[in-house]
Amino acid sequence: xxxxxxxxxxxxxxxxxxxxxxxxxxxxxxxxxxxxxxxxxxxxxxxxxxxxxxxxxxxxxxxxxxxxxxxxxxxxxxxxxxxxxxxxxxxxxxxxxxxxxxxxxxxxxxxxxxxxxxxxxxxxxxxxxxxxxxxxxxxxxxxxxxxxxxxxxxxxxxxxxxxxxxxxxxxxxxxxxxxxxxxxxxxxxxxxxxxxxxxxxxxxxxxxxxxxxxxxxxxxxxxxxxxxxxxxxxxxxxxxxxxxxxxxxxxxxxxxxxxxxxxxxxxxxxxxxxxx
Length: 276
Hints:
This protein is mostly helical. It contains twelve helices and no strands. It is globular, with a radius of gyration of 19 Å. The two termini are 22 Å apart.
C-alpha cells in the first residue's frame, strides 16, 4: 500500500474500532438490563445504535479497510453494508412492496433461524426439493443460519428488516445458484447479488473478490460463472420477495424457473471451503 495513505487509513481503522467498541458496549447495556423492553427501548428497533453522519462515515471507511484486509471479517462486512446501503435498501424495499409475496414478507417479518426451521421435516423431503437441498447445503458447507448478525446501524426500522432479510436469504441464494462457500462460490454469489440488489457492499466484494483467486479459478469466473451470475442477477425476480419458508417442498428446478434463474454452468465442490 502507498506510504502516504497508510497513516490516515490506520487512524480511520482505529477510530472505527473505538466506535464499534462503544456501540457494542451500549448494545450490551440494553440487552443485559431487565429494565429495558421493546416498549421502552429508545432506538428504532431492539439492538439499534443511532449514529451521526460523521460516525457513519467513519464506520463505513473503517469497516471497509478492515474488510479489505480480511474478507472473512463478517462483522466488518456487516457494518460496511449497513452504513453504505441506504439508497439500495430503499429500492429493494420498494420492489418488495410492489410484489404481493414481498409485501406479505414486509408485513409478517419472518426470520430464518434454526429456531424457526423444522430440520426433521426438511430432512424428510425428497431429493431435489428446495428444503432438502438447502439442508444439504448447510450440512455440506458446515454453516448455520444463526451466524447472520443482527442489524444495528440502519436508521429506519423497515429498511433494517430488509437488510436483515438480505443477510438471512444469502445461504438460500447459494442453494438457488448451486454455489458452495469456497472463495470462487462466494465471489460468484456476490456478482449475482451486486447485479440484483445494488448494495455497495456487494459491488465491492464482487470487484475485490477475484483478487483472491488463482489463475484457473479466475478463468472460470471470467469465462463462465461471472457472466452467468451477472446476467441472472439482472433479470431474476427480486430474491427478497420470495417467502422461502413456504417453498421448502417446491422442486428446486421449478423454483429457479419461476425466479428466472438458470442452472450454474459449472458445478463446484463444497470441499476446500476457503481455498483460493
